[in-house]
Amino acid sequence: MKTVLASLIALTLTANVFAEGSQGSPNATAAFLKNAQKGGLKFNGVGNMFAGHYGLLIVAENDGSLVAIDTRHTGKFTTVKPIANLGAKVAGALGTTTDKVTINDLKANPETGTVYISVRRSDGISAILTLDATGKLAALNTAKLNWVRVKLADKLRISRISAIGLAGNRVLAAGQSNDAFRSKIFSIPTPIEHGSTANIYSTDTYHVAHGRWETKAPIQSFILMQDAGKPYLVGSFACTPIAKFPLTNLKDGAQVKGTSVLELGSGNRPLDMFTYRSGGKQWLVTHSMRFHKLFDYTPSKYWAARVDMKIITASGEKTNKTATRRNKTIAKDPQGVEIIEALHGAVQVDAYGKQQAILLRDANGKLNLEIVKLP
Asked: Can you tell me the distance from the alpha carbon of 339 to that of 254, in angstroms, rounded to the nearest whole number?
């Protein structure tokens, strides 16, 4: 997941990072952390992640918490090399075999190219592994790193945190809770204060394929964007509507009504989203897993499409019940939705550089790390 709020974030970072004067290099502690702890970090399980500027890494934990870490990974972008059967190397790093390892997420540091891999062993042991340009795969050593932990809710049980992002002066997370309005957006102001909690919003979204409003289906993945000068979260749900949620004037506990603008096709569960520019256009990549019969043009249940962002930002009557529907019978819909062949079979995907993606591709049961050029 990559944000298109670049200018807003840049202003916020500049103010925060250099608040201490000219001493030292820009770092995630000064920019994002408050009352930071040093060392002694023990993860309560690890899941989805967000990798940001100045070495910031945010990790979702199994108990409904987020841990923000200053990894100290800063400097020049250096491309990692493709690795055949990375899944076996990950299993070896955890002292087990591939059938006993689950790779939860893969994210890339946007500044250095360092790759972070969230993994869990079948006995519950979990870790964050790092991969650098030298090909070294190792556990993230947090012994001397600064970090903070935020519990997203005191009274709700959060079953899953599906996505994390950074928008200007706040961290946003999407997840599923145990109350009547299960789909939640959690908001945490930056700098992220150790021991704090989040503001919580419920979502109400029109599922185009289902033909009804729903509050229980959680946002599976999202990006952050501006439309007409206002900030929005653009989220994707199972079966697969894409909706945008306004982020201005929100109050803790409020219900946020989304506007469904596009439906990619029922029978899919979104996994990753990010944006990139190509051919003079801004594209939204939605990476999904198909749980119904495969499309004729997708050889794997893992597939991805790119969407012209003009569809997302368009206003008028073509929303909710009249949202744009992708023509599922063809790979390239002239409305501005195109299948990305280079991402067929990708189990995990993230943006990598200006017009590339880094991915783990399933090749006959083996997970290969690849870098591909996007169209």
From this structure: 36
Q: Which band of pLDDT confidence, cut at 50, 70 and 90, is reported for residue 214?
A: confident
Nearest-5° angle of CA 124, CA 125, CA 129?
135
Closest to 286 (Cα-Cα) out of 214, 211, 338: 338
pLDDT band at 12 (very low <50, low <70, confident <90, very high): very low
Entry pTM: 0.91
Residue at 302: amino acid letter:
Y
User: Between the CA of residue 282 and those of 74, 124, 245, 309, what are the distances in Å?
Assistant: 27, 40, 19, 6
Backbone angles phi, psi at 301, to 5 degrees: -70, -15
Q: What's the pLDDT tens digit per position in 143-177?
A: 999 999 999 988 888 888 999 999 888 999 999 88
As a whole number of angstroms, the distance between CA 224 and CA 31 comes to 19
What letter represents residue 132's amino acid?
D
Decide if 80 contacts 131 (C-beta within 8 A). yes
245-270 residue pLDDT tens: 888 878 888 888 888 899 898 889 99
Give 166-170's long-range contacts (Cβ < 8 A, gap of 24+).
166/3, 166/9, 166/50, 166/52, 166/56, 166/58, 166/190, 166/224, 167/3, 167/5, 167/8, 167/9, 167/224, 167/231, 167/233, 167/247, 168/5, 168/8, 168/9, 168/11, 168/12, 168/231, 169/12
